[in-house]
Amino acid sequence: MFNYSVRRLLTAVPTILILIVFAFYLMRLAPGGPFTSEKPLPPAVMENVLKRYGMDEPLHMQLFTYIKNIVCCFDFGPSFSQKDRSVNDIIAQGFPVTLTYGFWSAVFVLVLGIPLGIIAALRHNSFWDYLMTGLAIFSQIFPNFVLAPLMVLLFTLSWGLLPGGGWNGGQWQYIVMPAIALGTSYMAGVARLTRGSLLEVLNSPFIRTARAKGLPERTILIRHALKPALLPTLTYMGPVFVYMITGSVFIDVFFSTGGIGQDFIDGAYSRDYSVLLGLAIIYCVLTFSINLVLDLLYAWIDPKVRDSL
Amino acid sequence: MSLLSVQDLAIRFSTGDGTVHAVNNVSFDIAPGEKVALVGESGSGKSQIALSIMGLLAKNAQVSGRILHEGRDLLTLSQDALNKVRAKKIAMIFQDPMSALNPYMRVGRQLTEIVELHEGLGRADARKRAIEAMEAVQIPDAKNRIDAYPHEFSGGMRQRIVIAMALICKPGLILADEPTTALDVTVQAQIMRLLDEIQSELNTAVLLITHDLGVVAGFCDRSMVLYGGRMMETAPTKDLFAAPSHPYTRGLLRAVPNINDAAGELRAIPGSPPNQLRPLTHCPFAARCVDAVEQCRSTLPELTGEATKRACLRPVEALS
Ligand SMILES: Nc1ncnc2c1ncn2[C@@H]1O[C@H](COP(=O)(O)OP(=O)(O)OP(=O)(O)O)[C@@H](O)[C@H]1O
Ligand SMILES: [Mg+2]
């Protein structure tokens, strides 16, 4: 298991390098640049600016310097559009925000979605099952850009219970709505997935064997059915979790949380190469780590997977 | 005094196509320590009879009749009461050992949870019992293999584990639903020998469900022949083989492939199994029976007789 993890981490390194190269050239290929504006800068000024950011050198040299700085000093370079801020600063400020509400959003998704799915499966074809399935389908197609304003309308404007935006150092009142708005449709997805897979597991022959042993239904559910029933949910939650903690542009913009979703969109508008590249690398590293954690979880649940590691 | 008495058992399933009459008023007794075979072709209702005894029928099933065990009707027991019978008094071996074990759980745990539940043993004692049970079914190196997962065992070994699960509480009755069908021939023989040894050691009664008459011949005291969810004939196994008294049993015995058969042909019974969507009003075998007369297509014969019971309107002497 340990060897496997090390091997996986080692293969991640070249993959991330390839990603950097691709993203780097791709961005430069796009028309425009961080210093293009309606009124072109005078050539002399432009030359100075380019020099300051090292953009006067040939592309491959720029790339080389960029990678060198990351490897030797964990330095993602200066931001092209925000004066006197480095990409490291921007990430250090925005990432904890998205990480926080993304994490609580994932908690909300799992803590609500899984039990709802279980209840629906156990009450198969009853009122509760239909209610849950109906609600799940409804909230799965209910986009967060409708849900978020609706929540602000109710919780902030009508009842004055929660602040309608801001972050304020991450006090819980400021986390609730972003987390719920971000998570609701995934919560519904998890509920439906859990319901379906638990129903299937409960119909499998080995559950019948467990019943033939005289075990009470509760024990059968917890000891025999739950682990395998959660496998599809696990698969589903991997990419969703990465998406959540790397920030949703919409949530950051709508609730003014100041997460990296906001930085991402700013960076895209202003062609801020270094910010975009830095965020892409974070995204990539997170995807790698979370997939590794997922695979280890799979192995923990399924002994056949464990043997193949 | 019988250990289990099944009386007038009928099992129907409601489906989109209508009601499936899977088992039609079947009655039989099993005495303590007795080895009884339940034989019949695929779809004749064998598994459903066993499942109804365990209370494990599918949700769309309706059962009627009585299944008496220790003076109680299992069909009317509460879930809790039934759970105390399962595995402790009546255990079941399932048709397919590949899917009967939980693939996500160590085999040891799948054994220990039974004795922890029914005998209140602690972890350590339960583990000791599990190892004993695995040794009893001749799994080599049981002490170490107990921590393995099902996929680490071969089919034959898995079936041994399933058997170990069935007998770990030393139940009075084991329902063995085609315990060897999924295994290859040499393993089949080993498993049957094992069942036989364990049976005589514990003096457990066994209901052996099979469509393989070869298996029955060596193992069972008494055989019951099922067709279309209806009991056709029950007799001491020796008599059944020597002098089958029902046209269906005769056809069944003739259909067994025989190495000494010069022609080497398979003499299957012509025709197809009955349509179970219609309630039984006459002998289900009449349509395929070479000896059938007009009356067979209008009357449902009762199972009658002493040692040998048969459900046939035609006297034995009149059969071809
Ligand atoms: N849940 C169900 N719904 C509808 N019909 C069912 C259901 N379960 C079983 N049946 C039907 O009941 C009949 C008897 O099935 P059973 O499983 O007892 O057959 P069997 O004798 O064990 O056959 P095999 O040798 O193939 O195992 C079959 O026709 C089957 O299609
Ligand atoms: Mg069967």
Could you explain the architecture of this structure?
The termini of chain A are close together. Chain A is mostly helical. Chain A is flat. Chain A contains 14 helices and no strands. Chain A has two domains: 2-73, no CATH class; 94-308, MetI-like fold, CATH 1.10.3720. Chain B has 320 residues and is of the alpha/beta class. Chain B has one domain (4-89, 171-318): Rossmann fold. Chain B is 32% helix and 23% strand. In chain B, α4 (107-119) crosses α5 and α5 packs across α7 (155-167). The longest helix of chain B has 18 residues, at 185-202. Classes of the chains: A mainly alpha (309), B alpha/beta (320). Chains A and B meet through α8, α9 and α14 of A and α2 and α4 of B. The structure holds adenosine-5'-triphosphate (ATP) and magnesium ion. Adenosine-5'-triphosphate binds at residues 13, 15, 20, 22, 40, 42-48, 58, 60, 211, 276 of chain B. Chain B: One of its GO terms (cellular component) is plasma membrane. Chain B: It comes from Pseudoruegeria aquimaris.
SSE topology sketch:
The complex is a heterodimer of chains A (309) and B (320).
Chain A: H1 2-29, H2 43-52, H3 59-73, H4 87-122, H5 127-141, H6 144-158, H7 172-202, H8 205-212, H9 217-229, H10 231-245, H11 249-255, H12 260-269, H13 273-301, H14 303-308
Helix pairs in contact in A: 1-13, 4-5, 4-7, 4-10, 4-12, 4-13, 5-7, 6-7, 7-9, 7-10, 8-9, 10-13, 11-12, 12-13
Chain B: E1 4-15, E2 18-30, E3 35-39, H1 46-54, E4 61-69, E5 72-73, H2 79-85, E6 90-93, H3 97-100, H4 107-119, H5 123-136, H6 142-145, H7 155-167, E7 173-177, H8 185-202, E8 205-210, H9 213-219, E9 222-227, E10 230-236, H10 237-242, H11 247-254, E11 304-305, E12 309-310
Parallel strand pairs in B: 3-8, 3-9, 6-7, 7-8
Antiparallel strand pairs in B: 1-2, 1-4, 4-5, 9-10, 10-12, 11-12
Helix pairs in contact in B: 4-5, 5-7, 7-8
The complex binds adenosine-5'-triphosphate and magnesium ion.
